[in-house]
Design brief:
- The structure is a single chain.
- The protein is of the alpha/beta class and about 425 residues long.
- The protein has 3 domains: about 100 residues, ATPase, nucleotide binding domain (Nucleotidyltransferase, domain 5, 2-Layer Sandwich), CATH 3.30.420.40; about 130 residues; about 140 residues, no CATH class.
- The chain contains 16 helices and 7 strands.
- Strands 3-2-1-4-5 form a 5-stranded mixed sheet.
- The protein is elongated, with a radius of gyration of 28 Å.
């Protein structure tokens, strides 16, 4: 029978919950079976301090913590600095169905950790974690903005106001002026509201008049729309403050941030999101392939009996995947780059969905090499010869405007 030798004399495993922590300590010489001791602790700071003292009494050198939601972070805050911590994905030690208890999970963690069979998750430094919180919150707030815009359009639909069929952006200049006229409550003629159209939209004034004819907008609908507009104004102000905060947190990583802006398809907000997710230090990921595997944008292995079967990408960091997909679409539409040629070639063979993920993989490997070598993106000689240009690809660092309603204009609707 093959046995795996132990590498730690005293270590612990912690099964994390919201209210309780199941802790198991494995103590004993590496050439003998370990003695297991278990206890249950609370999750308040005094209880976590008792846990730290208990671990120090047993001369525990390292702890494996299950990454359950965000409940492991308070444990990390108290134990950090006192002993080594390894954050473990629960899928890597999940017991068989029907055999799961909190203590069994903790004992299994301690046993695997004692024998060095657990791989720790990537934990960036605190400032990068805080930057990650800011970029993720920005993504959530932009989703809230889109949600409120959809609610306004839904109310207009229920009131037989069909201008959404004609105006591509209801929250542009023309759309907002028409919406302001509708919310005023005055009995304005349809022709006067339609005449608020600007530029090329004026060619469709007859269609706008037909879309507004005999609409059913009443005080109830106006009240609902004003509620959504007030929320939009609040969200816009929060987004402005959030963007200023993100720029402040990016200052220590300005060099890496500027490098990312030289990559085709990556603009300011996308660069901030990617940097917050992967961190500025590429020594954590020895190769670009390992970074892509951690990001979950490479297919897993599904090979048996000498046959390779189809395998999908892994479920990993969804915020990083979203940022990479956005950047990949931009890179695929940028001329004189290898990403455009790759996308066109892969689309013919794989279809556009798989081609986008393949460009994400190529893009992330390029980013890894740039941050590792501290070099900006540029076309090498072979690529320059192929694309008929020897110039460096210009950075796409123009200010990326968020798709949201300006505060000054939206206040006019209130």
């Amino acid at each position: 029978m093959i046995t795996v030798p132990a590498i730690r004399q005293s270590c612990a495993g912690i099964d994390v919950g919201k209210r309780e922590l199941a802790v198991a300590i494995a103590v004993g010489p590496v050439d003998k079976e370990a003695a297991i001791e278990t206890r249950m602790f609370g999750t308040t700071v005094p209880a976590l301090q008792q846990l730290r003292c208990w671990l120090e009494e047993h001369q525990c050198s390292s702890v494996a913590i299950e990454s359950t939601g965000s409940y492991w972070i308070p444990v990390k805050n108290v134990l950090e600095g006192a002993l080594e911590m390894v954050l473990v994905c629960s899928r890597k030690h999940h017991p068989k169905k029907g055999e799961k208890t909190d203590y069994r999970d903790a004992i299994g963690l301690a046993h695997y950790h004692r024998h060095g069979l657990l791989t720790g998750s990537y934990l960036p430094e605190r400032r990068v974690v805080e930057l990650r919180d800011l970029t993720r919150r920005r993504k959530k707030l932009l989703g809230d903005v889109r949600g409120e815009k959809n609610r306004i359009q839904k109310v207009l639909e229920t009131a037989n106001v069909k201008i959404g069929n004609i105006i591509s952006d209801l929250f542009g200049v023309s759309g907002q002026e028409m919406l302001q006229a509708l919310l005023s409550g005055k009995p304005l003629p349809v022709s006067e509201i339609a005449n608020l159209a600007k530029r090329r939209l004026r060619l469709r004034i007859p269609e706008l008049e037909e879309a507004l004819q005999q609409h059913q907008l009443n005080d109830h609908h106006r009240w609902l729309i004003k509620q959504s507009i007030e929320h939009l104004v609040l969200l816009d102000r929060q987004l402005e403050e959030l963007e200023s905060k993100i720029l402040e947190y990016l200052e220590p990583y300005r060099a890496q941030y500027d490098l990312l802006l030289t990559v085709p398809g990556i603009k300011e907000h996308t660069a901030a999101a990617i940097l917050a997710e992967i961190g500025p230090d590429m020594s954590v990921f020895p190769t670009g392939a390992q970074l892509c595997s951690w990001a979950g944008i490479c297919p897993g292995n599904n090979r048996s009996a000498g046959k390779s079967k189809a395998a999908h990408i892994k479920k990993a960091n969804k915020f990083l995947l979203i940022a990479l997909v956005e950047a990949s679409w931009g890179a695929a539409r940028t001329g004189d780059t290898k990403f455009q040629a790759q996308f066109q070639r892969w689309t013919r063979n794989l279809g556009w969905k798989k081609a986008v993920i393949a460009v994400c993989h190529s893009l992330l490997r390029t980013i890894h090499a740039m941050l590792r070598d501290q070099q900006p993106y540029n076309l090498n000689y072979a690529q320059a010869k192929r694309y008929g240009s020897s110039r460096r690809v210009a950075g796409h660092g123009a200010v990326e405007r968020a798709s949201r309603v300006p505060v000054e204009r939206m206040n006019l609707l209130l």
